[in-house]
Amino acid sequence: MNYVRILLQVLLVAWVFSSCSPVRDLGEGQYLLNKNIIKNNKPELNKGIESIFKQKPNRKILGLFRFHLGVYSLANRGRDTRFKRWVKKTIGEAPIVLDSVLTAKSRTQALQYVQNNGYFNATVSDSTDYRKRKKANVIYTVNTGQGYTIKNITYLITDKVVESMVIQDTANSLLKTGNNYNTSNFQAERERVTKFLRNMGYYEFNQLYISFDVDTALKSHQANVKFIIAGTNVPGAGGDSVQSGSHKLYRINNIYIQTDYDPLAKVIKIPTDTVKYKDYYFLSSFKRLQYKPEALLTRVFIEKGDFYKINNGDYTYRGLSALSLFKFINVQYKPIENDTLFGYWLDSHILLTPSAKQDYKLELEGTHNGGNFGIGGSVTYRNRNSFRAAESIEVKFSAKVESIPDFVDTTADASSALSLNTYEIGPLITIRIPRFLWPLQKFNHIRSSNPVTQFSGSYINQKRPEYNRHQFVLSSGFEFKETKYKKHFVYPAEVNFSNFDLTPAFMRKLFEIDDPQLILYYRNYLITNGRYTFLYNTQELNSFRNFIYFRFSFEIAGNSLRLIDKFTKTNYNTEDKYEALGILYSQYIRPDFDLRFYQLFSSHSSMVYRLYAGMGYAYLNSTFIPYEKTFFAGGANDLRAFRPRTVGPGSFQTENFIEQLGDIKINANLEYRFDVFKILKGAVFLDAGNVWIGKATNTFEGGQFEFSTFLDELALGSGLGVRFDFTFFIFRVDAGVPLKDPGRDERDRWVVPDLKPSSILYNFAIGYPF
Questions:
Q1: What gap in Å lies between CA 580 and CA 518, rounded to an integer?
Q2: Nearest 5°: CA angle at 118, between 112 and 121?
Q3: Within this chain, do residues 221 and 255 fall inside the same structural domain, yes or no?
Q4: How confident is the model at residue 656 (pLDDT cuts 50, 70, 90)?
Q5: 508 in a structural domain
Q6: Do residues 8 and 102 share a domain?
Q7: Exposure string (b/e) for 652-677, b if CB count within 10 Å is 16 or more?
Q8: Burial 250-265, CB ≥16 within 10 A → b, else e
Q9: SS in 3 state form for 690-756?
């Protein structure tokens, strides 16, 4: 059985489900809605028109198969049972029967949409093309005519102070003379101006004060727009209300921060202790403040005497939320009468409900990749507000065991899938301080940056058939947000020490191979490095739109130690190698990036495009980058049709090798995702990638990166996947088959003719691959 037969079987199953003819269930004169077709002289409007149709065809998978309709039709056969009803309700989708009433409503909605976009003289008509097998296409013909543009904008604003502010801000207006008329722009401008004025002190201002008067009777396909802001209503003669000429401009008076507020308590606690710190009042039922005031004030952006600004409340809410100290946060304002102060004033109340000071988390996971099983878990203890300054201490203890091939003794029983011949165990301690420390503390009060300083230390003991490795890592650094979508991670100081204890058999294997690079991979090493990571992510929760994820990281190691050697060694030589603590330290640079684009077709289907690339370059004190920083290909998150560390480098050919690592990596993925039913999701994927080495070696023949050949050396794999989405975690199963193996002869790298059922590689994992 070759790959073509496997593919044909998959397509056959999909076809069977999608072609179980639903038209059998249709009554006399009923037709299945097959397609909505829009004929429009302005095709840029089609997407918006299509989104408001009252009747849409049954959805398709991969744009080809109406799988859910086929399941419904299949379950509709024979005797009705509870199981069949469940299948029809959860997986199936009832046939969309052409409804002339809904067609007429769709036509009306389409006309309204086109007119809202400035085509007031547009016409929309519909016709129905009745096809074979009781299917029908509805054709909507749109003739927009000439669109209207905005000729003039005049402002009629009762409050002269408000008028001055709005006029000065017209550069940011969404309404411009000469622009196409668009109704949505008017609503967006109403919202923008409302937010603008509420950020200028107008606490009570709302959208109801703003209206527009549009005159389209100019006989020139142009419109004059009057932008109107009404004044406030006040009592007049005889009890009638009349418009006043001014809106109230508010300032902030007192700011109260209650740190033990409980909104769910049957009896609201009355704070018994008040502490004034700077211009803030801290309220609590405890005799001693549970939080040092300065620790909270770095995330509070409401200040006494300032004009009211809605943004300051939002920044305060997000900043306090980022501390992970409070489960409820409520920022309130209350107008007050103050006879000693001129104008209008607000008291601000920040109500905070603390989360539990301590918590525990238990995580378990199982893995399976190409016949290799594993199981792991971790216990995490977290202590919040450890020193009353909003810090958190987290202690995590992880352990996992798995089965991997024994590269030295390929006949050993330890290579069996259930042998669990490898384990990894160790603790991780992390201290997070929600602010910058010296000398950066002056930047702590930057809005929305939410800075965090972090210190961490970890130890891992990894036991494999070939070696026992001990790794110690200490790091310190900070992170902050630049904007809503941009985040920076700066870790200027990190120390990584690894100690390898190789088995005698493995040592003999390495010396038999006699490759310097391979031997150095498994020597003890010391890394003193700094790293920087930039993250750009435009994804927004509860927002249906395409988004981009981009991560760039740059790491540099060994330069500080090398500089010390340069000024302290009497016979310093650039060609010499130097040690620290008796260990040859590493010196290298290592940039990499991960770019993803998520294209959302609907709420039920999407396409994900991913490109990853990275390289390491060793210099001066190092000949090769250390084992810990090498790249590998294969596994559940990149090349799912290949086992981890079994691809490359380059076109290197081997039947059984220790670990196939590289200095350079390129990986690309394409994945189509779709819903099957509520918790079950499906995927079809195509993966490509490989690793290479930067310098030619005797061992990895064909493994060196060459621009002229690297595209032909990309491994290819494809397959199907299912995801069980339980909201709080996602369990994933991917079945991949190799299409192209660069480790085969150059003239025979396409493996499609040789595929068998045993060629399918199954991957079990938690979460999406990317």
A1: 22
A2: 70
A3: no
A4: low
A5: no
A6: yes
A7: bbeeebbbbbbbbbbbbbebbbbbbe
A8: bbbbbbbbbbbbeeee
A9: EEEECCCCCCCCCCECCCCCHHHHCEEEEEEEEEEECCCCEEEEEEEEEEECCCCCHHHCECHHHCC
| Residue 48 near residue 106, CB atoms below 8 Å | no
Query: CA torsion sign, 185 to 186 to 187 to 191?
Result: positive
Domain enclosing residue 60, as ranges: 3-143
Last residue of a domain, one of 354, 369, 384: 354
How far apart CA 106 and CA 37 sit, in angstroms, is 12
Would you tell me the crossing angle of helices 67-75 and 82-90 to the nearest 10 degrees? 160
Among 19-33, 172-186, 745-759, whose mean pLDDT is lowest?
19-33
The verdict on 343 and 312 lying in the same domain is yes
Q: Domain total for the chain?
A: 3
pLDDT computed for residue 243 by the predictor: 54
Q: Do 11 and 96 fall into the same domain?
A: yes
3-state secondary structure of 651: coil
Q: Which residues contact 599 (CB under 8 A, 6 or more apart)?
A: 546, 606, 607, 608, 609
Same domain, 33 and 122: yes
Contact 374, 367 (CB under 8 A): yes
In a domain, 761, yes or no: no
Please report, for the domain that includes residue 220, its CATH number: 3.10.20.310
- Both 111 and 14 in one domain: the answer is yes
Specify the residue for token string 């396909």: 221
- 26 and 55 fall within a common domain: yes
| C-alpha span between 453 and 440 (Å, rounded) | 10
63 is a domain residue: yes
Q: Which residues pair with 462 in a beta bridge?
A: 424, 469
Q: Which tokens belong to 723?
A: 């995801």
- Rounded Cα distance, 123 and 454, in Å: 62
Q: Using the structure block, give the residue that is written with the tokens 């020597």.
A: 523
Q: Are 691 and 633 in contact (CB under 8 A)?
A: yes
CA neighbor of 363 nearest in space, from 379, 385, 374: 379
Phi, psi of 119 (to 5 degrees): -105, 80
Q: Write out pLDDT tens, residues 510-540.
A: 777 776 767 777 888 889 999 999 999 999 8
C-alpha–C-alpha distance, residues 599 and 610, integer Å: 11
Angle at 202 between CA 199 and CA 208, to 5 degrees: 105
| % of the chain surpassing 90 pLDDT | 47
> What is the 3-state secondary structure of 306-335?
CECCHHHHHHHHHHHHCCCCEEEEEEEEEE
Q: Which of 247-256, 257-266, 489-498, 634-643 has the weakest average pLDDT?
A: 257-266
Rama region for 756: left / alpha / beta (φ>0; ψ in -120 to 50; rest): beta
**Closest alpha carbon to 367 in 660, 731, 669:** 731
| Residue closest to 497 by CA, chosen among 574, 424, 579 | 579
Structural domain contains residue 770: no
Kindly tell me the sign of the dihedral angle through the C-alpha atoms of 428, 433, 435, 441. negative
Before 405, cis peptide (omega within 30)? no
Three-state DSSP at 98 gives coil
Which among 143, 178, 201 is the end of a domain?
143
Torsion angle, CA of 217/219/222/226, rounded to 10 degrees?
-30
Residue 227 and residue 295 in one domain: no
Higher pLDDT, 65 or 37: 37
Residue type at 728 in one-letter notation: F
* pLDDT digits 0-9 by tens, 571-583: 888 888 888 888 8
What residue type is assigned to position 142 of the chain? V
